[in-house]
Design brief:
Order of helices and strands: EEEEEEEHE
Strand order of the largest sheet: 6-4-3-7-8
Structural class: mainly beta
Number of strands: 8
Length: 159
């Protein structure tokens, strides 16, 4: 399938599509992951991965990657359809903060409104993937297995 939107839906009780991310889920607040729920996954999904990426961050690496990675979470069993707030379950990848786990939005002061893309990816296998991968390593590894995906976009701005 590759990377194309599917019928899956990703929602949060913390913010609406295109809405402002509450400060408790940011680097200025408690810096905890928001609750997420998904539905309409493909019937043959065997596992899920969740990503949070800020494409508005003006960063491009020598490898050609762009934006800022706030979260990569994977090895989520197919039986799971939600993540609780501040989850510590499943396998944490490496964020661009240089550590595993979630790191909330915190764009530079005066940088304007940023969009944060929370992605849910459905995979057609449940191959155990080692902890600590960067987003780009994870995507390279799982791309052939992605059978469904969609996103929830939240916004955040510092004054």
């Amino acid at each position: 399938m590759g990377f194309a939107l599917s019928n899956m839906q990703l929602t949060s009780t913390a913010f609406d599509q295109g809405g402002s991310i509450p400060s408790q889920y940011t680097g200025e607040g408690e810096d905890i992951s928001p609750p997420l729920n998904w539905s309409d996954a493909p019937e043959d999904a065997q596992a899920f991965a969740v990503i949070c990426h800020d494409p508005d961050a003006p960063l491009i690496t020598p490898q050609g990657t762009y934006g800022f990675v706030h979260w990569a979470l994977y090895n989520i069993p197919a039986s799971i359809t939600h993540l609780a707030e501040a989850t510590s379950q499943h396998t944490q990848g490496q964020s661009d903060f240089g550590k595993p786990g979630y790191g909330g939005p915190m764009p530079p002061n005066g940088h304007g409104l940023h969009q944060y893309y929370f992605w849910i990816l459905a995979l057609d296998n449940n191959q155990e993937i080692e902890a600590g991968l960067t987003l780009w390593q994870l995507l390279e590894r799982i791309e052939p297995s992605v059978i469904g995906m969609n996103r929830l976009v939240g916004t955040y701005q510092r004054d």
